Amino acid sequence: KRVGTVRGTTAQDMLLREDVLSVEFDDVTAGLDALDAGRIEAFVDDAPILRHLVSTRYSQQAEVLPTHIGRQDYAFALSGGSEWREPINRIVLTFLQTESWRALRSRYLP
């Protein structure tokens, strides 16, 4: 089977660790277009991104499987000694306790 992913992503790293050779694409839409055209049989990328694009642009051509491959952490990069570090930390920690966050998690990160 031919599997696609975006070049240089953690998805590609995971496929390489599993000895799965992938067809490389510059971005997710190029990969989903290739899937739609039958040039690949599967496409691997971040679930929230795939869910959004498939539901809004590729709903007739693809489906996102309920497969969880691994957790990814994201971060904010700030310059050393930034005055924004503490306010951002407080806002993020507060938001993580809200119903809005729980709703987003259940929608995009089941």
Write up what this structure looks like:
About 45% of the residues lie in helices and about 10% in strands. The protein has helices at about 10-15, 30-35, 45-55, 85-95, 100-110; strands at about 5, 20-25, 40-45. Strands 2-1-3 form a three-stranded parallel β-sheet, with helices on both faces. The mean pLDDT is about 90.
Keywords:
single chain, 110 residues, mainly alpha, three-stranded parallel sheet, 5 helices, 10% strand, globular
Strand order of the largest sheet: 2-1-3
Low-confidence stretches: none
Order of helices and strands: EHEHEHHH
Largest sheet: 3 strands, parallel
Portion of residues in beta strands equals 5-15%
For the record, give the distance between the C-alpha atoms at the N and C termini, rounded to a whole number. 27 Å
By DSSP (H or I, 4+ residues per run), the number of helices equals: 5
In short:
The protein is built from 5 helices and 3 strands, in the order E-H-E-H-E-H-H-H. By secondary structure, it is mainly α.
SSE layout and pairing:
Elements: E1 3-6, H1 10-17, E2 22-25, H2 28-37, E3 42-44, H3 47-57, H4 85-95, H5 99-108
Parallel strand pairs: 1-2, 1-3
